[in-house]
UniProtKB/TrEMBL annotation:
Name by which UniProt lists this protein: DUF5004 domain-containing protein
InterPro entries, alphabetized: DUF5004
Annotated organism of origin: Aestuariibaculum suncheonense
Signal peptide: 1-20
Signal listed as a keyword: yes
Keywords carried by this UniProt record: Signal
């Protein structure tokens, strides 16, 4: 069961920290995003919780002695692994939260930085001397957004499966 936990955390960190700082003095950390939000950006301010993770290929991540691959990876994750959220604030700050609200999560993570969403729906994040940009699709009612990425997964039989993965985040309303 440790493999899926490690894989999820590796995917999250790798997707957020696409470039890291090194000791090379020529490298300059990306500047934090500043300025007023656009109307598009204002529509995505708030807390967004991970709702689903679906793959094109069936994958079995659960070591339960039953061969039951599925495209619904979210259902195979523990409560702590499912506990993932983004919080986008109106001052351009954001937080990525993992394992912070579910009970007894051993590996809580919070990554903070600044954010920007352009008119082409490219979400850019700056944190920890790194910038990552990802195309997102926000639904018409601004209540869900999806990110589509190709990942390598290792199933319960140690087989590497490459699959297009769609993660869906749902806006938390007060």
């Amino acid at each position: 069961m440790k493999k899926p936990i490690l894989l999820v955390k590796s995917l999250i960190v790798a997707s957020l920290l696409a470039v890291s700082c090194d000791d090379d003095n020529d490298y300059k950390c990306p500047e934090a995003f500043t300025g007023e939000l656009t109307e598009t950006e204002t529509n995505v301010t708030g807390l967004w919780k991970l709702k689903s993770i679906v793959t094109e290929e069936e994958i079995d991540l659960t070591d339960d002695d039953v061969e039951n691959p599925t495209t619904d990876l979210f259902s195979q994750y523990t409560e702590c692994q499912q506990d993932v959220a983004y919080e986008f604030n109106s001052d351009r700050s954001y937080s990525f939260l993992a394992g912070t609200t579910a009970a007894d999560c051993e590996n809580e993570q919070t990554i903070s930085g600044t954010w920007q969403l352009n008119e082409a729906s490219v979400l850019s994040l700056v944190a920890s001397c790194a910038k990552q940009s990802t195309l997102i699709e926000v639904n018409e009612t601004n209540t869900e957004f999806t990110i589509e990425t190709t990942y390598n997964f290792v199933d319960v039989n140690d087989v590497v499966i490459t699959s297009v993965t769609t993660s869906t985040y749902e806006k938390v309303t007060e």
